[in-house]
What does this fold into?
Amino acid sequence: MSEVQRTSKVVKFGGSSLADANQFKKVKAIITAEPERRYVVPSAPGKRFANDIKITDMLYTCQRLASEGKDFSETLGQIRSRYLEIAKDLGLSFDPTDELDRIAFRLKEGATKDFAASRGEYLNGMLLADYLGFPFVDAADVICFNENGKLLMTETMMSLRTKLADTPCAVIPGFYGAGPNGEIITFSRGGSDVTGSLVARAVRAEIYENWTDVSGVLVTDPRIVKDAAVINTITYEELRELSYMGATVLHEDAIFPVRAAGIPINIRNTNEPSAPGTLIVSGDSADSDAQTGYTITGIAGKKGFCAINIQKAMMNAELGFCRKVLSVLEEMGISFEHMPSGIDTMTIIVAEEMIKGKEKTVLSRIRKAVEPDSCELEHGISLLAVVGRGMRRTRGTAARIFAALAHARINVKMIDQGSSELNIIIGLLDGDFEEAVRRIYDMFVNSAWNESISES
Ligand code: ASP
It folds into this structure.
């Protein structure tokens, strides 16, 4: 087996980048602009306009109708028209009719949801391969799962490497692979990101380019801060913190394969290919890089938390207090987010959906376990994370955050700074959440605060 050359870039295109023929043309221009862009991972055609329906969703509909014994020919017909229209507009003779007939047959025989959904990427991969003149590699032959639907990393790497060693360029559809008996299995939604990452690792790519419809990862949610700035460079760790707190960028499982191999991810915009996008790198390379320009990298957050407030005189002297409280949560299958405490008080922040329906039992069990002076629930709490590797070597970051909130007369209910000094998490009332994000954004991105006093 010859070693795959290192000078390759893996390019993954999301559904909106392949929603119609015009988008396909942009994709081809991007791929042909650099000969290193040799391995291409497409999603299924996505939305062309706000109320449009993704091909993947239409395929799920077909499967559901089929499983209910209902007619799905109309939806399947719409899927056919979408592929045919793209092919026709690109001047290709590609016709999905025979494949769709086979899919219809399988659906009537009781094919799974995964099989149905995967066909969007499968057909789009064939169409794109035809358009680019690249070989098509079926993901079912190279992405391996076990019988429980868990990805088999070693097998997948071996299959991909063997297959791609003799294939200098290829289109490999995203989102799916196959189990031990050849049955089709998909990742969770948005999983083409994972396929791209696996291919990048297998070919030891120089970079994994993830092409989408935004010009990179934004400092914060553009629905809260209009025209939020793009982050130039972010570390995997920072991205994980922001994603956990609600920023939607990449599928969670897409980070691990490339991170372990030291391959950077570049988020790029198909509709603005000249923009450099966001580079996602490991912490070491980011530190030696030029800084982002701001002390913080991003702000994200979520609503929908509640606090269990426990108070008991001399709590600090009572051995095992914390363990007993946490045991109650563990026994009830409730995981917690944060646990700020005082000498005689302890607060546990949990997601509302975790505790829903179990509130009374949780409180009565805690009362029984530790006999507190008081124990009550407080609803309507938001968590906001200010994330940035720059904080570690910058003094005054917390002062700036809380000054911004104080000026807005926003009450802070909880503060938690991780030991890595990568983030500061703040608990707020739901009603203050958006304003808090805007104020912190302004403080770090828009204000002329003198950074030199805070640099160590
Ligand atoms: N087409 C699939 C979805 O809509 C997978 C993907 O786009 O990554 O979730």
Observations:
- The chain has 15 helices and 14 strands.
- Residues 452-456 have pLDDT under 50 and may be disordered.
- The two ends are 52 Å apart (CA to CA).
- The first helix runs from residue 21 to 33.
